[in-house]
Amino acid sequence: MLKKIDFGFALVTLILGVYVVLEGFSYGFTAADGQPGSGLFPIIVGFALIFFSVINVVRSRVDYLSIQEEFSLLVTKRMLVILLGNGLIISLMVFFGIMLSTILSIMFTGLVIAWGGVDKRFIIQMTIVSIVTTFILHTLFIKVLRIQPLIGIFGF
């Protein structure tokens, strides 16, 4: 039963992704001055929805990747903690800036997911991944998209 529901939601999000991409292109990928247009981010989000929905459709149809027939209470609690924690981080983004907020968000999410299996090596890996990912995204925003990201009180 849950497999059918999962398949249905995957199809709905796939259709939603296609709609978001089409609407994003109607707003314009770039503005008249060559800067990113108002449709850029909806297009990116729409393509992400399409990509992950296709994965979910395949996963829900292949037996060896089938999902469990019950939801774990622990997983549900962790997901709520991640949502609330990231909501707090996003609300403080004006104070921290986008770089520090992104690093904190990646590290917080990783620590909550791996709770109980966290050791020194994991923390070092999470720190490296969060910093490298943030600098790549920051460079992408500044150099490719020519968008100045939000800067916090620490100057980055």
Brief write-up:
The chain contains 6 helices and no strands.
Descriptive notes:
It is flat and about 45 Å long. By secondary structure, the chain is mainly alpha-helical. The mean pLDDT is 79. It contains 6 helices and no strands. The chain folds into 2 domains: 1-69; 71-156, no CATH class. It is 72% helix and 0% strand.
Supply database-style keywords:
156 residues; mainly alpha; 0% strand
Helix content: over 70%
**N-to-C SSE string, H for helix and E for strand:** HHHHHH
Give the biggest beta sheet.
none
Work out the strand percent.
Answer: under 5%
Rg over CA atoms, rounded to whole Å, is 19 Å
Number of strands: 0
Number of domains: 2
Q: What does the overall shape look like?
A: flat
- Given as residue ranges, the uncertain stretches (5+ residues, pLDDT < 50) are none
Distance N to C terminus: 49 Å
Overall pLDDT metric? 79
Structural class: mainly alpha
Number of helices: 6
Q: Could you outline the blueprint of secondary structure elements for this entry?
A:
Elements: H1 2-27, H2 40-61, H3 73-91, H4 93-96, H5 98-113, H6 120-144
